[in-house]
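W.,

You were right to be curious about this one. When I first looked at the sequence I had no strong expectations either way, so I just let the prediction run and decided to look at it fresh. Below is the sequence, 116 residues in total, followed by the output.
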Amino acid sequence: QVRLVESGGGWVQAGGSLRLSCAQSGRNFRLNAMAWYRQAPGKQRDLVARITSGGSTNYADSVKGRFTISRDYAKNTVSLQMNSLKPEDTAVYYCHYDDYRGGEYWGQGTQVTVSS
C-alpha cells in the first residue's frame, strides 16, 4: 500500500528555515491530495498545509505567508518550505496522503524544534 517517509526535520533557531520532504512509495493513485500536519506534546494533530491533485493549496492561519507546500509528481514527493520559524512551530510534522476515495495514510513523523 501507500508508504510515506518524511525527512528534513531538525533543530533551528527562531527566524531560521527548514525544508521538509515526504517521499511516497508503493501504490500511487492518480488522484490524491497530500498534506502536512503537526502535533506538539499534549496537543491535537492540526493541519498545517494541504495541496490537491490539481495543485491548489491551503494553509493554517498560523503559518500563512511563512510556509509553502509543493509537490513533484515525477518524484512522488511533497515538500514544506518553512521560513521565519517560531518556537510555537515546534512539533512533530506528519505527511498525509488521501486518495479522495476514503483512503488515507500517514508518515511516521519528523521532529522540528525551534529555539528562541
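Here's what jumped out at me. The first strand starts at residue 3 and ends at 7. And, maybe more interesting for your project: The chain is about 0% helix and 55% strand.

Coffee later to discuss?

I.
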